[in-house]
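Throughout our pipeline, every protein is held as a single compact record rather than as scattered files. The remainder of this section carries one protein's record, kept here as part of the documentation.

===
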Amino acid sequence: MNTINYGLLMTLLLFCFSQSYPNLNFGLIKGEGDSYCRFEKIEENKHCDSCDIKTWMPIIDSTFKSLTPKMIGEMICTIERSCANNSEFSSIANEYLFELLDKYPNETLKGIKKKKLDDKNYILKQIQNPVHDGIEIQALIKKLEQVDNKSLNAIKIEVLESLKTAFDK
């Protein structure tokens, strides 16, 4: 079987697999001279209240120095597509999402990675459309490019593409 046919077959299989198992993330990991496929189970936070501003109060009240990975995960967990009609929450979450990406890039990427596809796409759309003009997107792009965690490569690329879209606007 030639390379093109093999690639098409793998794409079809992976598409069917992802439709049957929506709680799995698939990623192609490129290393030095080789690449491999990786499937990971998406662990959802069952104790998450979507669109809940109270979850964001620690970040609003702090200087970003005392946030734990669990707190960051809980904050990211609250951002869902269903929040699009909640302008107060969406505005606050959008603004502070960029702060989280800046101060805690690994933990924030991990939180976004765990989201269901619709919610992850909503977050990426939020990143493409920052509500605050003072965000230094170019500096944030450089910072995220420095994240060196193979398990986060796929989501890092998606977030970087969203940031580049925001920068081009």
In short: Strands lie at 24-30, 35-41.
